[in-house]
Amino acid sequence: xxxxxxxxxxxxxxxxxxxxxxxxxxxxxxxxxxxxxxxxxxxxxxxxxxxxxxxxxxxxxxxxxxxxxxxxxxxxxxxxxxxxxxxxxxxxxxxxxxxxxxxxxxxxxxxxxxxxxxxxxxxxxxxxxxxxxxxxxxxxxxxxxxxxxxxxxxxxxxxxxxxxxxxxxxxxxxxxxxxxxxxxxx
Length: 186
Fold this sequence. Notes:
Elements: E1 21-26, E2 29-34, E3 41-46, H1 55-66, E4 70-74, H2 88-101, E5 106-112, H3 114-124, E6 130-134, H4 141-145, E7 151-156, H5 161-177, E8 180-185
Parallel strand pairs: 3-4, 3-5, 5-6, 6-7, 7-8
Antiparallel strand pairs: 1-2, 2-4
């Protein structure tokens, strides 16, 4: 469901933004981390094609951490916006292992645009216990069928009309054939 609309206004990336810290190696990958190190629950935020230095993404990570979660935002695009490869799923597994080594017993993932595909692949593989897909790209109804828990989808209502029509058809099929919950945001 990616469109040129999604990439029309890229954010100004800022490697120092956020209340957390950047570590060079969390599960083998550079990551932004924030939250209680004593938490037993973690959330992996998976970026869109702009990467883990997007200020809004880090602001979301900080907010999630305020709710008691340990949050990891891995640099799955390796500092090269718009060059996202399909390795995020494989690269996420060592991140999840590192979380479990820290005593985390419950991991969820939220994927944005490109990152939604990574989150749903983790859900299908049973690597996580919850998934949120925000403005998902490259995710099909067939992808969702393999999940064993409720998956929440969010979309922005400011998308172009053609995108809105596609979204309605997609949501209808998700609702009928999966355990997904579509939501719209303003």
